[in-house]
């Protein structure tokens, strides 16, 4: 078993001030695998003080210095790609191919920011006014357990490119992944205080960081209720916030879709990341006349959904992150049955042949109406709902009848109609006939799915303030 009892502050690994210990279990086997000594409020305060001390120098650093650090971060992550992949399999239960992709994605986030910096306009001229973009200040990044490398790297890349020192508060359920990633950050040679990492509970270390008067920017990825709490805390001092929150994304299957291909894609979209993805298309909207045929296509496509040991190459669905999440998802499955939804496949309990680990049967409900609990609330597990619609207008109405608006998907052959539907769906991203990621495009949500955008130039801009200097424009 590993033991992690340090925080990363001022360019060094230091003993955590906190004393509470958290036993971490392997989600595949339920066996103990490590202990994390949780950071506390004092650790959070020391980390902020370190970042405050680094701000005057880093905020005035040159473009090349920032690019050099971002490139060094990418290279450090790439050198440890195998270790990072192994940690994701061990600690999170991520299937091996997905785990390998996530390590590469983190390196690419740093590289993308470095490339953008080459010609990013920190100053612009409007007539006789010079508009200057300057670093907002110390940034706190609070990230979840379901995609920790990506979440840390994309937020940090934008902040460092903008000139902001960073304090990262990751989920305590990603302790080993964070430890290895922090070692990568250290190896890249960031100036002391520019990058700091404290791993503790959100209600302790996270709250201390969100409320700290010297934190000028908060970027949070996680649940909508916690995001609302952070927003209220930040409002007291008008700290800038970016919130990437929950989702209940629709997958609209058009009436001209090839049902076999649509079913396979819908399952990939819905069960991505073991079902623990804020962008998962968990509400599958299907033309009423084609529901039965589509459910049969889903049953056939389910043959390619393979729950099991994430180390085995053919596995496509690993366990949930912990027992608490397992119990939560099981409760939603029971709720769906209680509310009268028809079980197409799956149901309560573990998949057949699996006797241990936090595995959930990949479950699909039909005869779901959009007012049912399983259609309204984010389950964060491999549970999908098939909802019937009458025409394109009805599909759009159902898709938008949700407090969320993070992502949406459209599957069909008539690209003109698909594009017209995409224009009417309220979501930060809409993918047509695909489950792809563009790291330079903005990512964030409408409505209660968040505030602001990440990725690409948008992640840099989220860490900048604009100043107009009037009457002093340089020639």
UniProtKB/TrEMBL annotation:
Molecular function GO terms recorded: aldehyde dehydrogenase (NAD+) activity
Active site: 244
Primary enzyme class: oxidoreductase
UniProt keyword annotation of Cell membrane present: no
Keyword DNA damage part of the UniProt annotation: no
InterPro entries recorded: Ald_DH/histidinol_DH, Ald_DH_C, Ald_DH_CS_CYS, Ald_DH_CS_GLU, Ald_DH_N, Aldehyde_DH_dom
Enzyme Commission number(s): 1.2.1.3
Record's catalysed reaction(s): an aldehyde + NAD(+) + H2O = a carboxylate + NADH + 2 H(+)
Keyword terms: Oxidoreductase
PANTHER family given in the database record: ALDEHYDE DEHYDROGENASE, ALDEHYDE DEHYDROGENASE-RELATED
Annotated family: Belongs to the aldehyde dehydrogenase family.
Name of this chain's protein: aldehyde dehydrogenase (NAD(+))
């Amino acid at each position: 078993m590993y033991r992690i009892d340090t925080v990363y502050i001022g360019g060094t690994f230091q003993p955590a001030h906190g004393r509470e210990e958290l036993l971490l279990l392997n989600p595949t086997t339920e066996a103990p695998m490590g202990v994390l000594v949780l950071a506390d409020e004092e650790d959070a305060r020391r980390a902020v003080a370190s970042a405050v001390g680094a701000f005057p120098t880093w905020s005035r650093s040159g473009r090349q210095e920032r690019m050099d650090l971002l490139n060094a971060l990418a290279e450090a992550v790439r050198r440890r790609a195998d270790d990072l992949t192994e940690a994701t399999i061990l600690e999170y239960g991520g299937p091996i191919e997905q785990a390998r992709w996530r390590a590469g994605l983190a390196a690419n986030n740093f590289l993308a920011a470095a490339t953008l910096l080459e010609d990013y306009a920190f100053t612009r001229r409007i007539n006789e006014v010079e508009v200057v973009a300057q670093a907002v200040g110390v940034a706190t990044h609070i990230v979840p357990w379901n995609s920790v490398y990506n979440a840390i790297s994309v937020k940090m890349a934008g902040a460092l490119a903008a000139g902001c020192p960073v304090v990262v508060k990751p989920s305590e359920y990603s302790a080993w992944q964070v430890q290895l990633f922090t070692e990568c950050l250290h190896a890249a040679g960031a100036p002391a205080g520019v990058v700091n990492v404290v791993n503790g509970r959100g209600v302790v270390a996270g709250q201390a960081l969100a409320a700290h008067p010297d934190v000028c920017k908060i970027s949070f990825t996680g649940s909508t209720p916690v995001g609302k709490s952070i927003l209220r805390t930040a409002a007291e001092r008008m700290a800038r916030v970016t919130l990437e929150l929950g989702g209940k994304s629709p997958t609209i299957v058009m009436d001209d879709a090839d049902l076999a291909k649509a079913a396979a894609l819908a399952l990939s979209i819905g069960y991505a990341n073991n079902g623990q993805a804020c962008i998962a298309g968990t509400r599958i909207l299907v033309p009423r006349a084609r529901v039965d045929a589509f459910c049969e296509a889903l049953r056939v496509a389910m043959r390619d959904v393979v729950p099991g040991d994430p180390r085995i190459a053919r596995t496509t669905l690993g366990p949930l992150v912990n027992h608490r999440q397992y119990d939560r998802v099981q409760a939603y499955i029971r709720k769906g049955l209680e509310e009268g939804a028809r079980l197409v496949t799956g149901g309560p309990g573990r998949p057949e042949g699996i006797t241990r680990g936090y595995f959930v049967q990949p479950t699909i409900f039909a005869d779901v109406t959009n007012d049912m609990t399983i259609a309204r609330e984010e389950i964060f597990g491999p549970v999908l709902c098939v909802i019937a619609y009458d025409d394109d207008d009805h599909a759009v109405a159902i898709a938008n009848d949700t407090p969320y608006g993070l992502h949406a998907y459209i599957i069909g052959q008539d690209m003109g109609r698909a594009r017209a539907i995409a224009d009417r769906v309220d979501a930060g991203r809409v993918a047509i006939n695909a489950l792809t990621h563009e790291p330079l495009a903005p990512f964030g949500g409408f409505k209660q799915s968040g505030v602001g955008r990440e990725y690409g130039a948008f992640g840099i801009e989220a860490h900048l303030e604009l100043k107009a200097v009037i009457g002093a424009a340089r020639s």
